[in-house]
C-alpha cells in the first residue's frame, strides 16, 4: 500500500465475516465498503475516506480476515499485518466471543509498532459479549471491550467518541512548520528552482506547505529562483528573517545568503516537522564513517516519474560517493514497499522529507533501522552535510531544542 494520503489512518482488523466492512459503513452512515455474508469478501486492504467531527477527514483501511487460509490467504494476512505499520489507530473487531490466537497476534503487532487501538465486539445483536471475554481482553490488553452492532448502531456516537479519545492528537492536529522561529511581519525568502523535476505549472508540496505556514503566522513569503537571489537581496528591505531553500541548490544559497541570516532547507524543515529529528541529528554525521562496500538504503515515500537527474536516485548517490570517496551500493525503495533483504544489510538509511505520508508512517518506516542501531538521516540534512553546510542548516532548530546541540 502506498502512503499517498497524509490524513489520519485507521485500520480495521479481525477474522473473516466479523463485520469489519459493515463497521466502516456504520461509522460512515453510508455504504462505502462492500458487504457480504460470504467470508473473505475483502481480499486486500482497501482505503475508504470519511469525516469524523473534531478530527476531520480520516482514511479507514478495510483489511482481509486475519484467519484467511491457504497460500493466497496467507499472503492476504501478511498484507493485513503490513497495514499496521502505516496507521495511527487500530480497531480490532471481535464477534461470537472469539478472542484467540488470531486476535493476540494482531495485538502483538499493534504493540510492536506502538499503535493505539480499540477492541470492539461486533454483531452483539446476535450474541452479546460474555464476561469471560471481557475479562480476558482486559487482562491481556488493559482495554475494555466496546459492544457494538453494525446492523443496529444505536451507540454509534459513543463509538466515535471512543475513536476520538484513542487517536493521538498528533495524527490530526498540525503543528507549525516554522511558526516558532519567525514572528508576525517577518519576511521569509523561499528559494525554489524550476528545473526538469519541477511539476508543470505548480510548486511541489513542501514549498506550498511552507508558503501557507508563513502566511498562517502573519509573516510575508517571498518566492524566487536561485539565480535571482543575489539581485533580490540587494532590494529586499527589511532583510529576511529566514531563508528556506530547495536542497538541490543548498550550496549556491549558502554562498549567496549572508551569515547573519538563518538558512535552512524545505527538507530539513520537514525533517523536524514530521520526521525523527533527534535520530536524524544523531545519524547524519555517520555519513563521514561510511566504508567501501557499504549499502545505503534510500527511502522515497511516494512514487513519481524518475528524471535523469532525480534527487534521490541520482544526485544524492553521486554527491555521497564523491564526498566519501568510497564505492557504495545504493538501494532505492519507493512508497511504503518492503525493504529488500534484512535491515541490518544496510549501513545507512536516507529518508525523503515524507510530505506525502503521515508522521506515523514515516516514524514506523524508520523504526526497524533505529531499533537495529543503523544511522538514519533525511535528504536535506544529508545534502547539507555533504556540502559542508550542515551546522547552518539545522541551527535554526537546534537552538530551540537544547538536547540536539550534543550532536553538532
Q: What's the CATH class of the largest domain, please?
A: Alpha Beta
Strand order of the largest sheet: 2-3-1-4-5-6
Estimate nothing, just give the exact number of structural domains: 3
CATH topology description of the largest domain: Rossmann fold
> Which percent bin holds the helix content?
25-40%
Largest sheet: 6 strands, mixed
How many extended strands?
14
Instruction: Specify the structural class.
Output: alpha/beta
Tally of separate helices: 14
The overall pLDDT average reads 87
Strand-and-helix sequence, N→C?
A: EHEEHEHEHEHEHEHEHEHHEHEEHEHH
Instruction: Assess the beta-strand content as a share of residues.
Output: 15-25%
Secondary-structure blueprint:
Layout: E1 9-14, H1 20-28, E2 46-52, E3 56-62, H2 70-83, E4 89-94, H3 101-112, E5 117-121, H4 131-141, E6 145-147, H5 156-166, E7 187-191, H6 205-216, E8 220-224, H7 229-235, E9 242-245, H8 250-256, E10 263-265, H9 266-273, H10 277-283, E11 295-299, H11 311-324, E12 329-333, E13 348-351, H12 359-371, E14 376-378, H13 379-386, H14 390-398
Parallel strand pairs: 1-3, 1-4, 4-5, 5-6, 7-8, 7-9, 9-10, 11-12, 11-13, 13-14
Antiparallel strand pairs: 2-3
Could you characterize the architecture of this molecule?
- The protein has 408 residues and is of the alpha/beta class.
- It folds into three domains: 9-171, Rossmann fold, CATH 3.40.50.300; 187-269, Rossmann fold, CATH 3.40.50.11420; 277-407, Rossmann fold.
- Helix content is 35%, strand content 17%.
- The protein has 14 helices and 14 strands.
- It has helices at residues 20-28, 70-83, 101-112, 131-141, 156-166, 205-216, 229-235, 250-256, 266-273, 277-283, 311-324, 359-371, 379-386, 390-398, and strands spanning 9-14, 46-52, 56-62, 89-94, 117-121, 145-147, 187-191, 220-224, 242-245, 263-265, 295-299, 329-333, 348-351, 376-378.
- A six-stranded mixed beta sheet has the order 2-3-1-4-5-6, with helices on both faces. Strands 8-7-9-10 form a four-stranded parallel beta sheet, sandwiched between helices.
- α6 links the parallel β7 (187-191) and β8.
- α11 (311-324) packs parallel to α13 and α13 packs across α14 (390-398).
- The longest helix has 14 residues, at 70-83.
- The protein is globular and about 75 Å long.
- Mean pLDDT is 87; it is low at 1-5.
Amino acid at each position: 500500500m502506498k502512503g499517498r494520503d497524509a490524513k489520519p489512518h485507521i485500520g480495521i482488523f479481525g477474522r473473516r465475516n466479523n463485520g469489519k466492512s459493515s463497521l466502516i459503513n456504520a461509522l460512515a452512515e453510508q455504504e462505502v465498503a462492500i458487504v457480504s455474508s460470504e467470508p473473505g469478501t475483502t481480499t486486500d486492504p482497501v482505503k475508504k475516506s470519511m469525516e469524523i467531527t473534531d478530527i476531520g477527514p480520516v482514511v479507514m483501511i478495510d483489511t482481509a480476515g486475519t484467519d484467511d487460509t491457504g497460500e493466497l490467504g496467507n499472503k492476504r494476512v501478511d498484507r493485513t499485518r503490513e497495514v499496521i505499520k502505516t496507521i495511527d489507530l487500530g480497531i480490532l473487531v471481535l464477534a461470537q466471543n472469539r478472542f484467540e490466537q488470531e486476535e493476540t497476534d494482531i495485538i502483538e503487532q499493534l504493540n510492536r509498532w506502538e499503535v493505539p487501538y480499540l477492541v470492539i465486539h461486533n454483531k452483539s445483536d446476535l450474541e452479546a459479549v460474555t464476561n469471560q471475554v471481557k475479562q480476558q481482553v482486559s487482562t491481556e490488553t488493559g482495554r475494555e471491550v466496546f459492544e457494538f452492532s453494525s446492523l443496529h448502531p444505536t451507540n454509534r456516537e459513543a463509538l466515535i467518541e471512543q475513536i476520538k479519545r484513542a487517536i493521538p492528537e498528533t495524527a490530526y492536529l498540525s503543528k507549525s512548520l516554522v511558526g516558532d522561529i519567525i514572528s508576525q511581519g517577518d519576511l521569509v525568502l523561499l528559494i525554489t528552482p524550476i528545473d526538469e523535476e519541477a511539476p508543470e505549472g505548480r510548486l511541489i508540496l513542501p514549498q506550498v506547505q511552507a508558503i501557507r505556514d508563513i502566511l498562517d503566522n502573519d509573516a510575508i513569503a517571498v518566492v524566487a529562483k536561485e539565480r535571482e537571489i543575489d539581485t533580490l537581496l540587494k532590494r529586499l528591505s527589511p532583510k529576511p528573517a529566514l531563508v528556506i531553500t530547495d536542497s538541490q541548490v543548498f550550496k549556491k544559497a549558502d554562498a549567496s545568503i549572508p551569515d547573519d541570516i538563518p538558512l535552512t532547507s524545505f527538507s530539513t524543515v520537514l525533517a523536524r516537522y514530521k520526521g525523527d529529528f533527534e535520530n536524524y541529528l544523531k545519524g547524519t554525521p555517520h555519513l563521514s564513517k561510511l566504508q567501501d562496500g557499504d549499502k545505503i538504503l534510500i527511502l522515497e515515500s511516494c512514487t513519481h516519474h524518475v528524471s535523469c537527474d532525480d534527487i534521490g536516485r541520482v544526485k544524492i548517490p553521486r554527491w555521497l560517493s564523491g564526498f566519501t570517496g568510497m564505492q557504495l551500493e545504493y538501494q532505492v525503495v519507493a512508497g511504503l514497499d518492503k525493504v529488500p533483504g534484512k535491515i541490518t544489510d544496510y549501513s545507512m538509511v536516507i529518508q525523503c522529507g515524507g510530505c506525502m505520508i503521515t508522521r506515523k508512517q514515516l516514524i514506523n518506516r524508520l523504526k526497524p533501522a533505529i531499533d537495529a542501531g543503523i544511522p538514519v538521516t533525511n535528504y536535506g540534512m544529508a545534502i547539507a552535510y555533504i556540502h559542508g553546510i550542515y551546522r547552518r542548516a539545522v541551527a535554526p532548530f537546534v537552538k530551540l531544542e537544547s538536547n540536539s546541540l550534543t550532536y553538532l
